[in-house]
Amino acid sequence: MTGGELVSVPRLVVLDLIMERLFIAGMMVTGLRAETKEEFFGFCSDDIVGLHQRKQGVPDVGVYFRLRDGRVIDTFGRA
């Protein structure tokens, strides 16, 4: 997907739900507080171009968001 392509509405809904669940879990684990999932992660669901279970150079399996700008962010909002 290139930066100019639109993401389908059903896909946005699923990504938004995934972000919401991970936002709640992330706040419980880290103790950090944020008003919204977008504030917690630092991006919104329409910035996501892919989901991964692994990140190069990181031994742990988890959920990683690949963003349009090329960043890969983990479930705690870290690059």
Task: Kindly describe this structure.
- This protein has 79 residues and is of the alpha+beta class.
- It has one domain (9-73).
- It is built from 2 helices and 3 strands, in the order ααβββ.
- Strands 1-2-3 form a 3-stranded antiparallel beta sheet, with no helix packed on it.
- The radius of gyration is 12 Å and the shape is globular.
- The protein starts with 8 loop residues before the first helix and ends in a 6-residue tail after the last strand.
- The mean pLDDT is 84.
Kindly, what is the distance between the CA atoms of the first and last residues, rounded to a whole number of angstroms? 21 Å
Q: Can you tell me the overall shape? A: globular
Radius of gyration computed on alpha carbons: 12 Å
Annotation, overall tally of beta strands: 3
The low-confidence parts are none
Beta-strand portion reads: 5-15%
Q: Structural class per helix/strand content?
A: alpha+beta
Give, in spatial order, the strands making up the sheet with the most strands. Answer: 1-2-3
